[in-house]
Write a structure and sequence with these properties.
mainly alpha; membrane; transmembrane; single chain; Cytochrome C and Quinol oxidase polypeptide I; binds protoporphyrin IX containing FE; transmembrane helix
């Protein structure tokens, strides 16, 4: 794994550890207030980032696109802001909600960019295919 695939997988592994630590602390304290934060760290953080990592690993035409770097940084920064502000929100800081909303929209935009990168790489015809076989 290299490039953007390796970056995404590194991010995913960090989220898996942080998300499980939060899940364990919820289970041990029997306080499940942070359920949505734990759920999103696990699925949006660990699962989504892993799927991006494996996709970029398996499809070099997608990984070699310069847009994939933009996707990584937009997804990484927005997900970190989103998950931290989600934790603050469920911790009782309701005023943080606009930041959470903006971060969510940026993460959504990043996923739209991924859809474009992925579908273009898979269906983009000879140019994408030639690059895919060359690497
Ligand atoms: C050390 C491992 C884990 C612990 C101790 C843990 C603990 C918990 C706890 C205490 C809840 C709240 C349950 C409730 O109030 O109904 C929960 C919910 C949840 N966990 Fe985990 N969890 C762990 C790993 C994971 C993993 C690996 C994933 C996904 C990849 C995951 C995804 C979820 C989701 C999606 C929910 C929300 C379920 C719902 O909406 O009812 N958890 N977890
Ligand atoms: C822009 C990104 C996203 C936003 C704004 C968002 C928003 C939400 C909201 C508002 C809820 C309800 C929470 C509650 O009732 O307390 C929810 C629940 C849930 N979402 Fe998301 N979500 C996003 C991305 C995702 C993704 C990518 C996944 C899976 C890969 C996911 C999986 C879940 C699950 C499993 C639940 C149920 C657990 C819970 O109640 O927290 N979400 N989400």
């Amino acid at each position: 794994m290299q490039g953007v695939a390796r970056n995404f997988f590194t991010l995913a592994v960090i989220y898996s550890i942080l998300g499980m630590m939060l899940g364990l602390s919820m289970a041990m304290s029997q306080d499940h207030t942070q359920l949505p934060t734990h759920a999103h760290i696990m699925v949006l953080g660990w699962i989504m980032s892993s799927v991006f990592a494996f996709f970029y690993h398996l499809v070099p035409a997608a990984r070699n696109s310069r847009l994939s770097t933009i996707h990584f940084w937009a997804a990484a920064v927005s997900s970190i802001v989103m998950l931290v502000t989600l934790f603050m929100f469920y911790g009782g800081n309701a005023a943080i909600e606009p930041v959470l909303g903006i971060a969510s929209l940026v993460y959504f935009a990043a996923t739209m960019l991924f859809a474009f990168i992925a579908l273009r790489a898979l269906w983009g015809g000879e140019a994408a295919g030639a690059r895919a076989t060359a690497h």
